[in-house]
Amino acid sequence: MKANEYVKQNGWTMARKAVAECTYGYGIDLADLKRLVDSHDLVEECGGLDKAKERIALEEKLPNPNVFYMLVVSGAIDDVESCK
What we know:
By secondary structure, this protein is an all-alpha fold. It has helices at 3-20, 30-45, 49-61, 67-81. Helix 1 packs across helix 2 (30-45), helix 2 (30-45) packs across helix 4 and helix 3 (49-61) packs antiparallel against helix 4. The relative contact order is 0.16.
């Protein structure tokens, strides 16, 4: 089972618990699951998906956008959306 499928079926709480306890259920790559949980946390720190997308749009309008920030947050958004 892919990590995003695990999140779809079990939710973020169980994914976070699996990462914290380092459990390897269902042949899931723990590194992928941790990445998804970290991405979810980052998006939540931005205020959720809509706010994270707004931040990217605002950053793009700046004269000197922080490209690293945009890449990291965009990747996190993609990760979270893959788990819906």
